[in-house]
Amino acid sequence: PLDRIAYGRAVDLLTGRGLIENGRLTEYGREVEAMPVDRSWAELLVQAEPDVVPLVAVCSNIDSLHRMTREERDLHGAEVKGSDHLTAYNLYTEAVNQHGSLGQVYGLPRHVFDEDLEEWGERRGVLIKAIEDIAMGTASVYRSLELPLPRTLPYANRELRARFADLLARWMPFDLVIDEQTADGQEVRVAKTSVAGSWGAIAGSIRFFADRFGVPRASVEGTTLSYELVRRHAALGPPSVVLTGPRKHLQLSVSRRLSYFGFDLETEIEPLRGRIPDPLVGSARDALAAAVLEGRTPHPDQPKLRRAASILREWWRRSGGALDIGAEPELHRGIAAQLEGMRSWDDFLKTPLRLEPEALVPEAERRRLDALPGMVRLHGDAVAIEYDIDGGVAVVRLVLREGQARRLSPSELPELDRPARFEVMRSGEPPVRAETLEELKALLRQPARRMRAHERRNHRPRRGGRRR
Question: How far are the Cα atoms of 42, 47, 120, 146, 246 from residue 80, in angstroms, in the given order?
Answer without folding.
Answer: 23, 23, 19, 29, 51
